[in-house]
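Input record (Table S2, row 363):
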Amino acid sequence: MKKFKIAVLAGDGIGLEVTSICCDLLKQVGAHHGSFALDTEWLNAGADCYQQTGEALPGETMQVCREADAILLGAMGLPNIRYSDGTEIAPQLDLRFELNLYAGVRPVKPMKSLPLPLRNPDRRNIDFILIRESTEGLFASHGKGVVTNDQEATDTMRITRSACERLFRFGFELSRKRKDQGYPGRLTCVDKANVFASMAFFRKIYEEVGEQFPDIGKECMYVDAAALNMVKQPWNMDVLVTENMFGDILSDLGAGLMGGMGMAPSADIGDQHAVFQPCHGSAPDIAGQGKANPTAMFLSGAMMLEWLGEQHRQPDLVRCAELINKAVEDAYAKPGLLPYELGGQSGTNEITRTVQIEIERLL
Ligand code: ATP
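Output record (adenosine-5'-triphosphate complex):
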């Protein structure tokens, strides 16, 4: 039996609530399947950790993360615990920089049976992936912004050739993988090349790397048009790739298309390491009330199994990931299961139990 070491950073607020049940669920699938086991190590990090120890991401935590096969992260940051410059504690950003997790993968695939914000019947066909560059862009200025004489503030967008080349290669390869699965096989570059030199450079490198992928469709879109199209015709999108800050904003729009932050999974992937976490933050407004939707966390856990399966050439894990995705879909196809954030009454326990029942049925 293959054992995987998983560094678990539950973090703050609802991060703690959804992480432990996700670990239980993944272990349930592993135990039933018998071909792999997850050895989870819980680690300190986040805003509470910062308040207690003065460190948001202690060195020991970082070391275990470096040695782990994968990292599972809940949510981090609390609005009332901040650095002296007024910014929030966000070690999840530091992890992306430290471990070179350049591809933020944000699938946007709503559950067909849920009452979604878009009413057009084509909403059932929304199924695209947004890739958010996660090591530079405007976020490169995190912790480095300058305020001059209380009169002017500057944050700088940084775009490098090396980060762009690996990002676009990842995007084209993902588009190719999807093409093999029956998707259109198109990578859309989302930028603001008409205004910023940094974004014109971003697009230039997209076009250069694209020449190595003649089988994949190419398209460029300004970020404002992308926002419009994500509402007007998101069912026509396949794979989108964009700069860090634009990706941050558009991924919340993607979560909105799915009904809420608690439905949106994500992965931050590099060449050596990967972090899997729901798109949502610590949501202090609902923490401790049993209202947190764990779906995004379950789907992120499934993304982790898929990634581990591909990295270690263990198709069993990929099948287990598919099983979790199917169990979640089947749970929502049942009448009555509707999370609080979509206007329903289903809390963390009810959603978890319903998904567990579907997993048991499918195993
Ligand atoms: P961050 O800046 O850390 O990404 P945020 O400010 O975007 O966080 P979130 O914590 O993601 O905020 O929450 C935004 C809103 O979505 C909040 O009103 C919260 O209640 C709701 N929300 C977020 N996650 C969930 C969830 N898993 N289940 C239910 N509601 C959620």
